[in-house]
Amino acid sequence: MYFCKLSTNRKWKKIVSKRRFGLALPLVAGTDCPCPEPELCRPIRHRPDFEVFVFDVGQKTWKSYDWSQITTVAAFGKYDSKLTCYAHSKGARVVLKGDVSLKDIIDPGFRASWIAQKLNLAKIQHMDGINLDIEQEVNCSSPEYDALTALVKETTDSFRREIEGSQVTFDVALKCYNYTGIADACDFLFVMSYDEQSQIWSECIAGANAPYNQTLTGYNDYIKMGMNPKKLVMGVPWYGYDYTCLNLSEDHVCTIAKVPFRGAPCSDAAGRQVPCKLIMKQINSSISGNQWDQDQQAPYYNYKDPAGHFHQVWYDNPQSISLKATYIQNYGLQGIGMWNANCLDYSGDAVAKQQAEEMWEVLKPKLFQR
Ligand SMILES: *[C@@H]1O[C@H](CO)[C@@H](O)[C@H](O)[C@H]1NC(C)=O
Ligand SMILES: *[C@@H]1O[C@H](CO)[C@@H](O)[C@H](O)[C@H]1NC(C)=O
Ligand SMILES: *[C@@H]1O[C@H](CO)[C@@H](O)[C@H](O)[C@H]1NC(C)=O
Ligand SMILES: *[C@@H]1O[C@H](CO)[C@@H](O)[C@H](O)[C@H]1NC(C)=O
Ligand SMILES: *[C@@H]1O[C@H](CO)[C@@H](O)[C@H](O)[C@H]1NC(C)=O
């Protein structure tokens, strides 16, 4: 999730408070179960054959999710004990969000206290593990490179020891990590295969969030570097990008402002992240209607805002996700997941309901498609 929050672009998110975790609260395990049945507070031990890994950012929309499929919920919103009880009643894990400042983790003492604090929190909240989401640049020859692998290993060891059946996962973008070392040290990697226009090196034009070829090439690269496919969960976007076009040509080429990022002359920071639910409402009032880009295997549309500016919106729909998801079975990946589950329209109106169902439906393993 490199830049995945919809309301605030995390690219510019500042770390506002930094705490040292010296004072861990004493924990009496097993007390204060908020669920209607005490067994719903017990950690999930079952290991599913296929993961459907769902990011939840809060609100109550989780009630409308397709729980017949979900195996893990990464709770990135405010803690909601009802979500945990409900997930457990469906046999799904709920895992904590783990983010940490990279420069701190070089210190083994810091790592130990950070892990102790997270473990304590997971236990108090009756959770089943942790999802490590570290959205900072890692340089290959930096001390952070090895410290990160150590952090994942130490976190996994502690969680497995203290919470039976617990799951530790790590979110990766294409950066300089010790991928295989990290994958070996935890249950699996959630691959954030989106925000792929975060560095645009060629022409500054709007493009797909997760183009087909580029995405699958990324997975091929992981496998080529010796990664076990069972250690990979494919992340798909349930959001898109709205770009204001400096110029929109007749053949739908939308030129965008130059917003440099990490050395590249332009980036998706020229656009604005929009949730699927907004996109679905907007398509019918667009000037182009739904378009399909053959090269990128992704849908888009153009619209004109009240000020008269043209926009191009790139997003993912059941068709584009389904095409990418075929790779999962063909190459034996561990599962699929999305950023984020809240993004669909769960208002209950008939069209929205149908669209949401289709988005959930394409997550199901597709057999015999090779
Ligand atoms: C990585 O290297 C770049 C340039 O070489 C530097 O600007 C950046 O601060 C470094 N990042 C870290 C986390 O050390
Ligand atoms: C990755 O991490 C593993 C485990 O710590 C280590 O054995 C291996 O040498 C590392 N690989 C690289 C390329 O740093
Ligand atoms: C801008 O768009 C117009 C009309 O769509 C097109 O004729 C023109 O070639 C475009 N200009 C550039 C620089 O792409
Ligand atoms: C948009 O138009 C299509 C085709 O006319 C229709 O099936 C669909 O229900 C409309 N979507 C919404 C959100 O109204
Ligand atoms: C995508 O990859 C396939 C296979 O490598 C290739 O044949 C095709 O031309 C590529 N498409 C694009 C748009 O790059």
Defining traits:
15 strands; globular; chitin binding; Di-N-acetylchitobiase; 370 residues; binds 2-acetamido-2-deoxy-beta-D-glucopyranose; glycoprotein; 5-stranded antiparallel sheet; glycosidase; signal; 27% helix; alpha/beta; 8-stranded parallel beta barrel; TIM Barrel
CATH topology: TIM Barrel
Domain tally? 1
Low-confidence stretches: 1-29
Distance between the termini: 29 Å
CATH class: Alpha Beta
CATH superfamily: Glycosidases
Give the fraction of residues assigned to helices. 25-40%
Radius of gyration: 21 Å
Bound ligand species: 2-acetamido-2-deoxy-beta-D-glucopyranose
Strand content: 15-25%
Outline type:
globular
Structural class: alpha/beta
Q: Quick check: average pLDDT? A: 89
Q: How many E strands? A: 15
Element-by-element helix/strand order: EEHEHEHEHEHEEEEEHEEEHEH
**Biggest sheet overview:** 8 strands, parallel, barrel
Total helical segments: 8
Arrangement of strands in the largest sheet: 1-2-3-4-5-6-7-15
CATH architecture: Alpha-Beta Barrel
Give a brief outline of the structure.
By secondary structure, this protein is α/β, with parallel strands linked by helices. The chain has helices at 81-89, 108-124, 143-162, 179-185, 212-224, 276-282, 318-331, 350-361; strands spanning 51-56, 72-75, 93-98, 129-132, 167-172, 188-191, 232-237, 239-244, 247-248, 254-255, 271-275, 291-293, 298-304, 310-314, 335-339.
Question: Could you characterize the architecture of this molecule?
Answer:
An eight-stranded parallel barrel has the order 1-2-3-4-5-6-7-15, surrounded by five helices. The chain contains eight helices and 15 strands. The protein is α/β, with parallel strands linked by helices.
